[in-house]
């Protein structure tokens, strides 16, 4: 009980809660303190105090990489806190608390998957095209950006064309359109961009399974034209490995928690 109280106290501050939520969105990434402070617009000394409180409550881990301190969410402890609250809340009243361990059958039209990044000009567009090719009728792929660019990146489109992908429907879209009442209901939302995962966006309708597959931004690659094309090809290959593994999952036999576990496990695979 004392641990639960410490965790609730740690999360009972709006900025500490925002910090913990950010680390949960970035899981399984270990995020540098400087990036956390920048994303939350918090001074370094204030951030250090917040991180210390969350660490003492057992909700986050700290690791050192060179001269940098990296922080990550402790999902097992967070899960224990949620389980405690659900058990104390429900007390067997299944009509008041959703059962996360119930298998969810495949939707009649297949699963809807949204790949999310900031500009929706390269990584998320590539993921959308790859899933369409790999998954057949089981999935419908979408992509969007939190701050979409005007046009898709030409190197990304060229790479997809040369790989045999149909790029006629690929263009940047605003993520807000997928929160509209008449938008397709998403079953999975996967961010492939750290900046997009850092943003505290409104909750998605129907609460789809969410995961973060952080990929380096090939648009930022420097060097010769060949080196820049190689950066896009490497991101495409990393996305393809993960998406193939995702498409092969027996989702119809898995409950929501198991689906979340599998997507988080894929995020830990080398990109």
Automatic annotation (TrEMBL):
Keywords: Arsenical resistance. Gene3D superfamilies: 3.40.50.2300, Winged helix-like DNA-binding domain superfamily/Winged helix DNA-binding domain (1.10.10.10). Pfam families: HTH_20, LMWPc. Residues 1-93 form the HTH arsR-type domain. This is Helix-turn-helix domain-containing protein. It comes from Tropicimonas omnivorans. InterPro entries: ArsR-like_HTH, HTH_ArsR_DNA-bd_dom, Ptyr_pPase, Ptyr_pPase_sf, WH-like_DNA-bd_sf, WH_DNA-bd_sf. The keyword Plastid does not apply.
